[in-house]
Design goal:
single chain; 200 residues; alpha/beta; Rossmann fold; 7 helices; 7 strands; binds guanosine-5'-triphosphate; binds magnesium ion; GTP-binding; nucleotide-binding; GIMA/IAN/Toc
Length: 200
């Protein structure tokens, strides 16, 4: 099992008055999820620049873990994003795909020596939560511990414009995003619950 980052402990730095103040933090985030659901796009949005290649190909565009940084501001520190290849690459059989996903996870964690503060599990809004997604979640837990979702995972729904469209369609779909998250049942509902409703 791998070691995860503790809650960020900013280094103490002397200031001009010989008192101490908290120094900037480097936030380490890791994108995970199925091929084509928008991991690289979300990573780019977080960094505020195009650091990762985005593609609409059905085959995995990102084929090795890549990391990129952005400085936020002098007192807010920086953010490092580790972008991982898609889980469920259509070119591989299931066993090879699971092995590769585990290796990629390991490689991503090694590229964040200060520890990973949050795993961003990217899901395309409107896609069915299938056995493949459940398997991904199980692999995460077996590698990183049973409480990884509860403590370190944020669900990022991409294709939010589809959500907006479905809301406009009728009175049955009028709730906002957090009500929609609360309404989910089955595998997705369990996942949201386990991630303590940290969904964006
Ligand atoms: N409409 C829409 N398209 C999106 C959104 N997010 C990503 N896309 C598109 O979805 C496609 C795949 O996005 P990527 O960011 O490359 O997905 P990925 O998960 O990194 O894919 P792999 O690296 O191949 O695993 C691209 O064409 C993106 O432009 C979104 O929120 N809305
Ligand atoms: Mg990608």
């Amino acid at each position: 099992m791998f070691k995860l980052g503790k809650r960020p402990q900013p280094p103490l730095m002397p200031n001009g008055n010989k008192k101490f103040k908290f120094g900037p933090i480097q936030w380490n985030l890791m994108m995970i999820g199925k091929t084509g659901h928008g991991k690289s796009s979300t990573g780019n949005s977080i960094l505020g620049r195009t650091a990762f290649v985005v593609s609409d190909s059905s085959e995995s565009e990102t084929d090795a873990v890549q990391v990129a940084f952005t400085s936020l501001s002098a007192d807010r520190g920086s953010v490092k994003v580790a972008d991982t290849p898609g889980i469920g690459d259509t070119r591989m059989d299931t066993v090879t795909a699971i092995r590769k996903a585990c290796k990629d996870l390991e490689s991503g964690i090694q590229k964040c020596p200060g520890g990973v503060h949050a795993f961003l599990l990217v899901l395309k809004y409107g896609n069915r939560f299938t056995e493949e997604e459940s398997r991904t979640v199980r692999s995460l837990k077996s590698l990183l511990g049973e409480d990884v979702l509860r403590r370190h995972c944020v669900i990022v729904f991409t294709h939010g414009e589809l959500f907006d469209l479905s809301r406009k369609k009728g009175p049955g779909n009028s709730g906002d995003f957090s009500s929609w998250c609360c309404e989910q049942t089955g595998g997705l509902g369990d996942l949201i619950e386990e991630c303590q409703h940290r969904c964006v």
